[in-house]
Design goal:
The chain has 330 residues and is α+β, with helices and mostly antiparallel strands. It has helices at residues 4-19, 31-37, 42-49, 57-62, 65-108, 113-127, 129-142, 147-159, 165-175, 180-193, 197-220, 237-248, 287-297, 313-321; strands at residues 230-231, 253-261, 272-279, 303-308, 326-329. Among the domains are: 4-19 and 28-55, no CATH class; 230-329, GMP Synthetase, Chain A, domain 3, CATH 3.30.300. The chain has 14 helices and five strands. Strand 3, helix 13 (287-297) and strand 4 (303-308) form a beta-alpha-beta unit. Helix 6 packs antiparallel against helix 7 and helix 10 (180-193) packs antiparallel against helix 11. The N and C termini lie far apart (73 Å).
Length: 330
């Protein structure tokens, strides 16, 4: 903060922050609005703050105590992060070894497509963006629809000021809907900094539409109606066999049925299931407790409900008629 060079950097960063406008999705007003609300001129405040200092606030008000406090806080921080740091260091060494292994394989025989992407990620981590960009492009030469590679290329191009990165972000979003929010965030920030507010708002609107869709899908999955539409689960035999093995550990379960729910929002993207169970009531005092325990302990890919079919005649009838729904019989 005492360096004269710092002022130029601070003014550049602050100018970008001051150019931002408060949007309807922001949780806080933009910097310029907050400074104006304090009754000051935003650019004048930034100019003053960017000037090199001769004395810090700690030196002014704490004197020699500031040095002692800094040492104490440093020691406390080091003790607090020691275990985390050791774990991180170990993980770093493993990643570094893996990079060397992939470097060697790439030099000898080349890498398959899945390892090319892993190699590019590790190169970016250890050697920087400039070294990684050609590798991500290499992945796209093998598969130009790869959402991970398109996102990485788009991200790196925008970071270097190259607007063609937007095209790659669009391809990433087209190939994988999960890329929509992070890609829109990058695109919006890039365009806002360049003063292209109308284009930036287009990405903001796209992100909001995705969030609304996710909210609708979430709400749709929070309750199970008695007239729920169901279809065959179509899960792999390995998943079904694993579920049956889990059910075998619950002696109260006499039969179990599995079906997939039909949703209006993101049905393919986020599947949701119903596990209907027939319980041996003569051995139970509280069937609901068993259902609750099953819901907590069973594991199925995706969202699911466990239902006592003895308490839902309509759902029971429809699950019994569904081809392949009966998966377990004690």
């Amino acid at each position: 903060m005492r360096s004269p060079q710092t002022g130029a950097v601070a003014r550049e960063v602050a100018a970008s922050a001051l150019a931002r406008k408060t949007g309807t999705g922001d949780t806080h007003p933009a910097l310029s609005d907050r400074l104006s609300a304090l009754g000051v001129q935003p650019h004048a405040v930034v100019q003053d703050a960017a000037s090199p200092i001769s004395e810090s606030a700690a030196e002014r008000f704490l004197g020699g105590l500031g040095h002692d406090l800094a040492q104490r806080f440093d020691a406390e921080w080091q003790a607090g992060v020691a275990e985390w740091w050791a774990d991180g260091h170990g993980e770093w060494e493993v990643a570094e070894t893996r990079l060397a292994e992939l470097d060697q394989r790439a030099a000898l025989d080349g890498l398959p497509r899945d390892l090319m992407l892993e190699h590019a990620h590790l190169v970016e981590r250890f050697r920087g963006e400039d070294a990684a960009l050609p590798l991500y492009r290499g992945v796209l030469e093998r598969n130009d629809e790869s959402p991970e590679a398109n996102f990485a290329v788009g991200r790196l191009l925008l970071a270097s000021g190259d607007e063609t990165g937007l095209r790659h972000l669009e391809r990433a979003m087209d190939a994988d809907a999960d890329a929509t929010l992070p890609a829109c965030e990058l695109a919006h920030s890039f365009l806002e900094q360049r003063g292209q507010h109308a284009e930036a708002d287009r990405y903001r609107a796209r992100a909001h539409a995705r969030v609304d869709l996710l909210d609708d899908a979430y709400e749709e999955r929070q309750a199970l109606g008695s007239r729920e539409q169901l279809r065959e689960a179509n899960l792999s035999s390995e998943v079904v066999d694993d579920l049956c093995a889990q059910l075998a550990g619950h002696p109260e379960v006499e039969r179990a049925y599995l079906a997939r729910r039909v949703h209006s929002h993101l049905d393919e993207e986020f599947p949701s299931y119903v596990i209907g169970v027939r319980l041996k009531f003569w051995r139970l005092k509280e069937p609901s407790a068993v259902v609750h325990r099953l819901a907590q302990e069973l594991s199925v890919p995706g969202h699911f409900f466990v239902v006592d079919l003895g308490g839902s005649r309509g759902l029971s009838r429809r699950m019994r008629k569904l081809d392949g729904a009966l998966i377990y019989r004690r």
